[in-house]
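Read as chain and fold; for instance:
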Amino acid sequence: MDIMLIDPPYTSLKGLTADCGYHIGLTSLAAYLRSQGFESSVLMGDLLVDSLRSTKNKGFSFDVKEYAAGQRAYEAVVADSTHVLWKKLADILLEHKPAAVGISYLTPLRYVVEKVAALVKEVDGDIKVIAGSAHPTFCPDEVMQNPDIDFVVRGEGEIPLSGIVRELGKESPRWEDVPGIYYRDGGGQVRSTPGVGPIENLDELPFLARDLVLNCDYNRYRLHSLATTRGCPYTCSFCADRRLWGGRVRRRSVANVIEEMKLIKDTYKIDSIDIADGTFTYDHKYLRAFCQTIIDDGLDVKWRCTARYDNLDEELLHLMKRANCCGLYFGLESGSNRVLKAIDKRITVDQILKVSEMVYECGIPTASAVLMGLPGETKEDMEATLKLMKKVKTDLFDVNIYSPLPGTVLYDAMSEEAKRSIDWHKVSYKSFDSYFADSVSREDFKECISRAYEISNGVRRKTIFRFAAKMFFGFIAKAFKKTVRMTRTRRLYQGAS
């Protein structure tokens, strides 16, 4: 095998089972590599953990406070070289014997990425280890300080990664000819090459290579995903998405996206499709064309997407519902207009309340992301968020604690000493140890976060009850209608005899 692409285990180590069985970025890279004639595979670390324990999904029983506390379990597994997970991963590497391993590297996963890289070298020191995604893109020199990592791919990965794999097959590889990478020369010095321009026409890329995922049972993992864009038009100061993709947005055609949705439907048993764009609803013309095509084609596929409070109206919502939209994910972030302005969110609390009511009345389920503990946020700001959480109409809250991510405006504003002091063993999107709110005492911070988690769990329980009741009464209604139809049919036959 030329290369195995690995998404390291993370959320599963903290107690949450996976819902989608694959990684969009890695399956996109695998598809591109296959189109170039290379043999690749994708290994999902979280699915590997799922296979080693109970397969019962914790979807309805999920407790966000328990998940936050699960950071300790994650830390313990990463530190335990005798854990069965690492033996299982080593066995897979020995079985498939890849010439190279590519690892998806997000900043909060730093230590599990380093664990996987070290394990690869223990299994076979000749396997080349390649790190890609956000963290290596923004911190390539730091990543190359790790002797277990041979290459960094910066930014869009298809062309640089295929270049590395191509050179690996040569007796005398010329790494200087591969664009957009960091590598070590013959003397061990770290070198870099100029980047490559973005792929302009995303329709030219093959669809995700879902079939190349080694450890996914698609009869179990029935949530699928795809992306229609690379990049985001917004400039939220806590997010690096815009900078990661070069500061502009490229988008697949509606026809290309619909074709992939049809392929998913024809190939797998699916529950729904997640459209995992930074913001799917920003272009109304595109959104209308997408929905109308689904309606005109009679495509019976449920889908969910990301949205914003400042770019939806009733007409669009009803069109989306007719087109089988079954969920919207909003970035609420804060209940303080001061904080919303400071992070360049470009929305207000009044907009949040008004649009959430409109979406709720429309009947499309929603999840609302909350971000607490931002630099400069005061206890009063956090109290305003808690107050808004009790008033806003939503079906679920996704409560996150601010983590300083490279490539963001807020990270750039930190001192070098502060950046070096971050302990990524403990810091994550929901961990109680993610404390960067310098205007709030640690005690007040933890108290407010705990209350946010309690509100979130309370809303989740009410939503479960409401949807369960709706499903029950829906079943009763269907049964009643069926009984009425059967009675009418009997009467017709009786009347005819």
Q: What stands out?
A: The chain has 19 helices and 15 strands. Residues 442-496 form the longest helix (55 residues). Confidence is low (pLDDT under 50) at residues 55-60, 475-497.
